[in-house]
């Protein structure tokens, strides 16, 4: 137990690592529904809505104004990368990890079930079967309750980052 609570500067550096160009392109492509190389306000709103957010049109317009630095009405990959990289360097890894966990914990009960994982991955365009999601959950479910709690999620993510 002590090993997991002792800070390790190498692990912290890994957690704070900036996203790679390939990772950013994959995420950008999830937002860019019509594959025209730019994200419109409509596409941004659709992705945020599919993830359970309740942004109003005016809030989405404000987000677009903040990110769209060339003022062409769209978010291009360069603008998208800039905002992703700045937010990944300014927020703490533990906050980002909790936000990621909360994205999957759709019913906000502190657990990620196979059905929640299946729902979110499919909303993000990653086609996984329910059985695939159950196998993913089982592989990190150390307490055997059929779900992933935050501690299990945190352990899984730190293992993936350092390997």
TrEMBL record:
Annotated InterPro entries: EF-hand-dom_pair, EF_Hand_1_Ca_BS, EF_hand_dom, EF_hand_pair_protein_CML-like
Domain EF-hand: 19-54, 55-90, 92-127, 128-163
Alphabetical UniProt keywords: Calcium, Metal-binding, Repeat
Lineage: Eukaryota, Viridiplantae, Streptophyta, Embryophyta, Tracheophyta
GO CC, alphabetical: cytoplasm
Cited function: Potential calcium sensor.
Bias type Low complexity, positions: 1-12
Name under which the protein is recorded: EF_hand_5 domain-containing protein
Any GO molecular function: calcium ion binding
Chain residue ranges for the region called Disordered: 1-22
Entry annotated with the keyword Metal-binding: yes
Pfam families: EF-hand_7
């Amino acid at each position: 137990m002590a090993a997991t609570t002792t800070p390790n500067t190498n692990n912290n550096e890994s957690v704070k690592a900036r996203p790679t160009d390939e990772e950013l392109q994959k995420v950008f492509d999830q937002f860019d529904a019509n594959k025209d190389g730019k994200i419109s306000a409509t596409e941004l709103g659709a992705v945020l809505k599919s993830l359970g957010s309740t942004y109003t049109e005016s809030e989405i317009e404000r987000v677009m104004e903040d990110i769209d630095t060339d003022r062409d009405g769209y978010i291009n990959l360069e603008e998208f990368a800039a905002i992703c990289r700045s937010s990944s360097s300014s927020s703490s890894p533990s906050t980002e990890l909790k936000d990621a966990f909360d994205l999957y914990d759709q019913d906000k009960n502190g657990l990620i079930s196979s059905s929640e994982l299946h729902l979110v991955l499919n909303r993000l365009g990653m086609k996984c079967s329910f059985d695939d999601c159950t196998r993913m959950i089982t592989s990190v479910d150390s307490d055997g309750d059929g779900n992933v709690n935050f501690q299990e999620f945190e352990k899984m993510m730190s293992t993936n980052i350092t390997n």
